Amino acid sequence: MDDKIYPLQFNPILKERIWGGKKLKTVLDKPITSAITGESWELSTVEGDISCVANGILKGKRLSDVIQQMPEQLLGTMVYARFGTQFPLLFKYLDAHQDLSIQVHPNDALAQKRHNSFGKTEMWYVMQADPGAKIIVGFKEEANSSQYIRHLKDNSLLSILDVIEVQKGDAFFLDSGTIHAIGSGLLIAEIQQTSDITYRLYDYDRVDAQGNKRELHVDLALEAINYHKVDSRKVYLKEENQPNSIVNCPYFSTNLIPLSSSMIVSKTAASFTVYMCLEGAFLLEYNLNSYSYKKGDTVLIPAAMDYYTMTGKASILEIYIS
Which of 90, 106, 116, 231 sits a CA distance of 20 to 30 A from 307? Predict the structure, then answer.
């Protein structure tokens, strides 16, 4: 048995944001040092923000280097055939103490042409919501670019966007091109393509500590926006001790596992799997070793780990590529 094949955890990459707060510490026990920490990047190979292994024999190694050493064993045969040694997803926890900007992400074709990057299709799972917390996803009705520009110019963009009140357990799928914003009072688990390309459309005229407004990308966004009405909320089952499908798209599949006792996982070596612990705690037993996880933990299961057990009382997101 290869001693480099085991569940991998990573040191969180913490990001200060103008809209951030303290929930990453108070709720998820992340080692933040700032009262405006907005993001914990759990698993990343974005240039300049590459995750480092936090446990076991590979501790201190960069994820990108581990992939180079054992691409098929870690990524999976199908993922490696499709993406080579690129890790195709980015995993985050977000704390929106204030409203995020209204923004949009380009699709693969546009991102490749403009930025030599993946596009950004993503999903959100609401881990905690203050009363009345809202998100913006897409347009209320069918729209077009001239309407969008007109409302942007007269400061009424919000009037044509779909504002949705949300609560804990809600899940949303945002295809690239969907205008969106996370509202204040939300703690969210986010799964997305490996991309950091964001076009910011409106930022409430906020200024940073130096009195500067953040850059807007109104013209770049014109070609990226999907002007059709979208249905982004996902309805899913919550059967205990088994995966319940939330999202199944070309970029990732996400299940919810409400773990109340134990379950055996037996899978192929086609794709890696990632678990994000939303609530509670669980043990994962593999190759006569036991690994423990709690709320806020994220763990990467190499594709070569094809049989293991999970035991505990926890709510877990399971993500893989199919």
Answer: 90
Question: Given 82, 114, 150, 200, which residue is catalytic?
Answer: 200
Q: What is the pLDDT of residue 207?
A: 84
Please state which of the four CATH numbers 2.60.120.10, 3.90.230.10, 1.10.3720.10, 3.20.20.80 is assigned to the domain occupying 13-234: 2.60.120.10
Would you tell me how many other CB atoms lie within 10 Å of the CB of residue 145? 12
Edge-to-edge strand order for the sheet containing 134-139? 161-165, 134-139, 180-182, 102-104, 199-202
- CATH class given for the domain over 244-320: mainly beta
* 62 in active site: no
pLDDT, one tens digit per residue, over 274-283 is 999 999 999 9
Domain ranges of the chain: 13-234, 244-320
Q: Is there a binding annotation on residue 105?
A: yes
- 97 annotated ligand binder: no
Consult the annotation and say whether 122 binds a ligand. Answer: yes
Q: How much is the average pLDDT of 167-184?
A: 98
Distance CA 85, CA 164 (A): 38
Fold match between domain 13-234 and domain 244-320: yes
Give the whole-angstrom CA distance, residue 169 versus residue 171.
6
Q: What is the 3-state secondary structure (H, E, C) of 81-110?
A: HHHCCCCCEEEEEEEECCCCCEEECCCHHH
Quick one: pLDDT at residue 1?
Answer: 59
- Render pLDDT for 186-203 as a digit per residue (tens, 0 to 9): 999 999 999 989 999 999
What's the confidence (pLDDT) of residue 205? 85
At 233, list the tokens.
Answer: 């909320």
CB contact set of 17 (below 8 Å; sequence gap of 6+): 36, 37, 38, 39
